[in-house]
């Protein structure tokens, strides 16, 4: 008997001239691109997508409550979507990580970039943390996780527990309830991991996102050479990751700043875990308020690190985001001693690389500084960037040497 999860519930036909992003390699069909729907279309179910002239474009999940109405799963007409289809995708995702990244802690599934639309799975040591943000993939979540546990076990990696962090507001836009809780027997949700020789306690239950920002792994390693012997200021430190890397690299003194006292408490615990509590200190403060005060007090640092949260999550608020990035970079630059380094990044997809670079240039001009680019990075390779699917590229990371205007 056929599994009804795999039943094609209808056909979507696009308007003439619509679907340009999809045809260029993108993964989404928006509500305003659809001309008609035929069949017994069921939200969360599978549909075929046709161009206006009947040309087959692919198969995907539909959700009429979402502006992203169809999330593509496959482009070939002869692709069979069944249990074997999901098993191959899970195995492909895991094999890719084994070839490219330290798998002690890593992102195993990264949504559309791994062809799992709307699904994220992070591995923290022997614990998996899941975020499901699309109705269609949510229906297959138990199957995908069962396959993943089996695939990891084949490599001698037992999974102690699984925790779901599907508590983002975007779930509501999909007509889904926000959910947070165990998908396995309960376990201690404070998990110890190690990355770049630094140990961390990760709170998968109450930490931001899935508990830890794995995407900065390579960028955290990139700051080691520039921090030795320096005074370092780490802004938006979260649970102390950049600050601790600076301390591990031999910085003389490190101050980490974050507006969350919960984050600061965890950062201090992480410092003790690494024996760095004497040189890496933390304070709870609003960075926008603190930086002008440090400047007025005449403080200067060999390295200033700016790792803010996304200032915009939509195109509508991009102007305000630009102001925020310009302000924070200008203030940070004024605190860098001549010949020191600015480390700055943006994790907003809508702050595209050209706009971010332009904003940094404007900040440097306003601060009367000259910048020499030392390093450019993006998200770690366990968060792969799928070309032609722009939504998978979001992190821009720079290291600059800062010189006074001559």
TrEMBL record:
GO terms for biological process: methylation; rRNA processing. InterPro entries: PUA, PUA-like_sf, PUA_sf, RlmI-like_PUA, SAM-dep_methyl-trfase, SAM-dependent_MTases_sf. Residues 10-95 form the PUA domain. It comes from the Bacteria. One of its GO terms (cellular component) is cytoplasm. One of its GO terms (molecular function) is methyltransferase activity. Pfam families: Methyltrans_SAM, PUA_3. Its main location: cytoplasm. It is found in: Cytoplasm. CDD domains: AdoMet_MTases, PUA_RlmI, RlmI_M_like. SMART domains: PUA. Keywords: Cytoplasm, Methyltransferase, RNA-binding, rRNA processing, S-adenosyl-L-methionine, Transferase. Belongs to the methyltransferase superfamily. RlmI family. This is Class I SAM-dependent rRNA methyltransferase. The lineage of its organism: Bacteria, Bacillati, Bacillota, Clostridia, Lachnospirales.
């Amino acid at each position: 008997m056929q599994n009804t999860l795999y039943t094609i519930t209808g056909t979507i036909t696009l308007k003439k001239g619509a679907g340009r992003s999809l045809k260029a390699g993108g993964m989404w069909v928006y509500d305003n691109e659809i001309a008609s729907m035929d069949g017994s279309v069921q939200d969360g179910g599978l549909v075929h997508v046709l161009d206006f002239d009947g040309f087959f474009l692919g198969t995907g999940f539909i959700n009429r409550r979402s502006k992203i109405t169809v999330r593509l799963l496959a482009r070939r007409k002869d692709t069979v979507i069944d249990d074997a289809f999901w098993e191959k995708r899970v195995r492909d995702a895991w094999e890719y990580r084994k070839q490219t990244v330290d798998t002690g802690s890593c992102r195993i599934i990264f949504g559309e970039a791994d062809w799992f639309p709307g699904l994220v799975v992070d591995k923290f040591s022997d614990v998996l943390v899941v975020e499901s943000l699309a109705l269609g993939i949510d229906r297959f979540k138990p199957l995908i996780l069962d396959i993943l546990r089996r695939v990891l076990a084949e490599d001698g990696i037992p999974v102690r527990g699984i925790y779901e962090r599907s508590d983002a507001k975007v779930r509501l836009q999909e007509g889904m309830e926000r959910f947070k809780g165990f998908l396995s027997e309960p376990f201690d949700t404070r998990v110890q991991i190690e990355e770049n020789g630094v140990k961390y306690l990760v709170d998968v239950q109450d930490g931001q996102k899935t508990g830890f920002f794995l995407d900065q792994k390579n960028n955290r390693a990139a700051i080691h050479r520039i921090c030795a012997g320096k005074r370092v200021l780490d802004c938006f430190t979260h649970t102390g990751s950049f600050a601790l890397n600076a301390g591990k690299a031999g910085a003389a003194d490190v101050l980490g700043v974050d507006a969350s006292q919960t984050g600061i408490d965890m950062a201090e615990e992480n410092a003790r875990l690494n024996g760095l509590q004497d040189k890496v200190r933390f304070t709870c403060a609003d960075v926008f308020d603190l930086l002008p005060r440090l400047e007025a007090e005449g403080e200067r640092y060999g390295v200033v690190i700016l790792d803010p949260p996304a200032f915009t999550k939509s195109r509508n608020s991009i102007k305000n985001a630009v102001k925020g990035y310009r302000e924070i970079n200008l203030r940070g630059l004024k605190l860098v001693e001549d010949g020191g380094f600015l480390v700055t990044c943006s994790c907003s997809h809508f702050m595209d690389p050209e706009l971010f670079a332009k904003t940094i240039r404007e900040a440097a001009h306003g601060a009367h500084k000259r910048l020499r680019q030392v390093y450019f990075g993006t998200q770690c390779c366990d968060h792969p960037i799928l070309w032609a699917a722009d939504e998978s590229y979001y992190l821009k990371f720079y290291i600059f040497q800062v010189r006074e205007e001559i």
